[in-house]
Specification:
about 270 residues, Tetracycline Repressor, domain 2, globular, ubiquinone biosynthesis, transferase
Length: about 270
């Protein structure tokens, strides 16, 4: 979206997609490592997590810490490829990544904290391309991403709600209870509305909004069809929630590929 707004050459979004893809993979892994270190003793008592390397005793906490240091070093290496504005903005997200695993012990909204961490790229991606963040465009996109995270991670949390009650873990799945479907429907609508509003502010074209529209239908279908009492159905719903994000991305890509050369040639003329 930043490349679309600034009419950058195709090499710009390609390069940053590769860079951010690497950073996202590494930092998500770091978040998982931190989560497993926080929950080592808890994981031993839950069937679904007792086979994790730390809980099973395959690795020590010191080895996990060394692995985490390696992950964070790679993440820092990616971050240092960006401008200073983006470096500072990216560094501020680390605190959220670290505290997220603790949130499920003290609040029923750990999924919201996850959304705050996972969607930081909505702010950072723009600043990497432009040198600073266009908050008017990026904040609705960021908020829409947080609402989307609440949808898919609440579906995921429904798999574990019986275990969570036994070990004192909190989640939106327990908070929403039998009202989960209408609440997730509302969050889905909110998410797609905010993403669409962000595109409107950015002057996006028809392909972008077609992508958002299809993504909205995908989310509605997932929320309607998911059986929140079935682990298998919740897992499928969780995995399928990735497709709306892919659909929006493809719409944005099509919009960029179609519009940027046209805009560039018009400006030249």
């Amino acid at each position: 979206m930043a490349s679309y707004a600034l009419h950058t050459p195709l090499t710009t979004p390609l390069a940053y997609t590769a860079l951010f893809g690497t950073g996202a993979l590494v930092m998500r892994g770091a978040g998982c490592t931190i989560n497993d270190m926080w929950d080592k003793n808890l994981d031993k008592s839950v069937a679904r997590t007792k086979e994790r390397p730390l809980a099973r005793g395959d690795i020590t906490r010191r080895q996990a810490l060394a692995f985490l240091a390696g992950q964070l070093s790679v993440g820092l290496g990616v971050l240092l490829q960006l401008n200073w504005y983006s470096i500072l903005l990216g560094a501020t997200s680390l605190s959220v990544v670290i505290i997220y695993p603790l949130m499920k012990r003290i609040t029923y909204w750990p999924q919201a904290v996850l959304g705050i961490a996972f969607n930081w790229g909505a702010l950072l991606g723009w600043s990497a391309v432009a040198g600073s963040t266009d908050w008017a465009v990026c904040l609705p996109l960021y908020a829409g991403g947080i609402a989307w995270t609440l949808v898919y991670d609440s579906i995921y949390a429904h798999q574990d709600k019986r275990d969570d009650v036994g070990v004192g873990i909190r989640s939106t799945a327990l908070l929403f209870g039998h009202k989960t479907r209408p609440i997730l429907g509302l969050l889905s609508g909110t998410s797609m509305t905010l993403v669409g509003y962000s595109g409107l502010l950015n002057g996006q074209g028809l392909p972008f909004f077609v992508g958002v529209g299809i993504a909205a239908m995908q989310l509605a279908r997932i929320v309607y069809r998911t059986n929140f009492e079935s682990r298998e159905s919740c897992w499928k719903g969780f995995v399928d929630c990735g497709w709306p994000g892919f659909t929006i991305w493809m719409g944005a890509l099509a919009d960029y590929v179609y519009a940027v050369p046209l805009l560039s040639s018009t400006a030249t003329s």
